[in-house]
Amino acid sequence: MRRLQRGKPSVSRAFAVYGLTTVAHGSGFLAVFVAGVLLGDVRAPYKKEIERFHTALGSLGEVVAFTLLGLTVPLWTFTMEGAWTDGIVLAVLLACVIRPLVLTALLWPMDLSRGEKRSSPSPDSRVLCRFFSVATS
């Protein structure tokens, strides 16, 4: 519990900077961003704990944001417009054709063994099996 309390002052300071800047008719987001850049390299006590807290908070924020974004999309629009078939065809092309070609072109000049060059561009069979089992169910 003490670890969580160490990250709270930095979050409250970010809210304070955002609020003060917004009241002054400025960009609160930009102010918090600039403050984070300026204070990011400052030596502080419990810096690792604060960074761990903010990393977890950022991950939770991403999950919430993308969940809410996903809830705003009506799924019936995909079935009416035939987007499922377009999506499946595009996913298969990306996984089986485009990705191996791009990786082969990027890995060709590197000093890798023959086995590494041959196995890296091919899509992982476990991923393809999961993809096809989800796509067909």
Explain the overall architecture:
- The chain has helices at residues 2-23, 28-39, 47-71, 76-81, 83-107, 114-119, 125-136.
- With 137 residues, it is mostly helical.
- The protein folds into 2 domains: 2-71, no CATH class; 76-136.
- The chain starts with a helix and ends with a helix.
- 0% of the residues are buried.
What is the number of domains? 2
H-E string = HHHHHHH
The end-to-end span amounts to 43 Å
Q: Any idea what the shape is?
A: flat
Strand content: under 5%
The mean pLDDT is 78
What is the overall number of helices? 7
Radius of gyration: 23 Å
Largest sheet: none
Query: Could you list the spans in which at least 5 consecutive residues all have pLDDT below 50?
Result: 1-5
Total E-strand runs:
0
List the defining traits of the structure above:
7 helices; 79% helix; mainly alpha; 2 domains; disordered N terminus; 0% strand; 137 residues
